[in-house]
Specification:
42% helix, six-stranded parallel beta sheet
């Protein structure tokens, strides 16, 4: 039986969706949004023009993901390295763009039943930005559909440091470091993403072949899909293409698959 096309997909998106197995969609997709600067440079525009153009890609991607009922989508929006190494003017523009995006897009998020969350060291961001982030999170808190997570002032290595620190503090409060338990479950339970499943699929735009300090712990067994498309040109159709490629992969999680043993992919990824 052919699957029903979700409402809101355009003709090309519907054609790709009909080739997918709706029972094997990724439960969590992470995206490294790269290429804004190159997009602008190719058009002889300032870098900030690329960031501005990238907003349309964000909107199209999250709407398509929500329409096909992806449970969780995480976007790498602003790294800790961006905060420290980019020109002050560009950083200030990114902060202003984030505030405008949140203000403008909350109705769209609510219309698509999307709940907004964040990961990263939010307390290091400007107070006005934190206030707008808190407002947008509260405005979408009652939605029950896809969880959209924005990684802001985020670093995977910092996340692991913060997790270990939290474990040590908890042990001290529980009678001392003799009560400290260090294992994979404990570390995962103290990461910023502890309320989310690990991503099944990570997508990187612009053709770069690196993770750039993004979700290093959580992406241990994720399928990686790299597209040469620059982020401002990425759309929901590109997301569906990535999912199509994901469904062609045989996920082994370090083990072997033979005819007598079902692939993990056959159980939803």
């Amino acid at each position: 039986m052919q699957p029903t096309v979700p409402a809101g997909l355009d003709r090309k998106e519907a054609e790709v969706y009909l080739r997918l197995d709706p029972q094997r969609l990724p439960q969590h997709i992470a995206i490294i949004m790269d290429g804004n600067g190159r997009w602008a440079r190719r058009r002889h525009l300032p870098r900030v023009a690329g960031h501005r153009a990238g907003v349309a890609a964000v909107r199209s991607t999250i709407e398509t993901a929500a329409r096909i009922r992806i449970p969780a989508l995480t976007l790498y929006a602003f790294s800790e390295e961006n905060w420290k190494r980019r020109p002050r003017g560009e950083v200030d523009y990114l902060m202003s763009l984030l505030c405008r995006y949140l203000t403008k897009e909350v109705p769209t998020l609510n219309g698509n039943n999307i709940r907004l969350n964040y990961i990263g060291r939010q307390h290091e961001l400007p107070t006005k930005v934190q206030e707008r982030m808190d407002w947008a999170r509260a405005a979408t808190a009652n939605n029950t559909g896809m969880v959209l997570t924005l990684a802001l002032n985020y670093s995977a290595r910092t996340e692991i440091v913060d997790a270990v620190r939290a474990m040590i503090r908890a042990a001290i409060n529980n009678g001392g470091v003799d009560h400290l338990t260090v294992d994979e479950t404990a570390i995962s339970g103290n990461l910023y993403t502890r309320h989310l499943p690990d991503p099944d699929l990570v997508i990187r735009t612009s053709g770069e072949m690196r993770l750039s300090n993004f979700l290093l712990w959580q992406l241990a067994y994720a399928e990686i899909y790299v597209t040469p498309t620059l982020w401002p040109e990425f759309r929901g159709l590109d997301l569906l293409d990535g999912i199509s490629e994901y469904q062609k992969r045989e996920r082994r999680y370090g083990g072997l698959v033979d005819g007598s043993r079902a692939s993990p992919q056959s159980h939803g990824g």
